[in-house]
Specification:
Elements: E1 2-7, E2 12-20, E3 24-32, E4 35-46, E5 48-54, E6 59-67, E7 74-81, E8 85-88
Antiparallel strand pairs: 1-6, 1-8, 2-5, 2-7, 3-4, 3-6
């Protein structure tokens, strides 16, 4: 699953997410026209993280999770801060 917010450079996006039923690998990153990838952080076998993204540029900033558990998991994400839109990326 992947969730992205649209934010302007310098915007602060607070986040906290938790995994129920297992663990995930994650990649917190951003992209924009002309910028295919900007990494904020990655991890493996996580059951949750919290922190703050400070937008490096105008664009989309967010989280990608890959379930590496044996069964189904649920990821719950909570955000706050200065962004104009939030959506699941298909």
């Amino acid at each position: 699953a992947e969730i992205k917010v649209k934010a302007d450079k310098g915007a602060r996006i607070g986040f906290e997410w938790a995994v129920f039923g297992g663990h995930v690998n994650y990649d917190t990153h951003a992209d924009a026209p002309g910028v295919s990838y900007h990494g904020y952080g990655k991890g493996r076998e996580s059951t949750g993280e919290r922190g703050e993204i400070v937008a490096a540029f105008d664009g989309s900033h967010g989280w990608f999770w890959r379930n590496r558990s044996r069964g189904s998991v649920t990821v719950v994400l909570r955000t706050n801060g200065s962004y104009s839109d939030i959506r699941r990326v298909v």
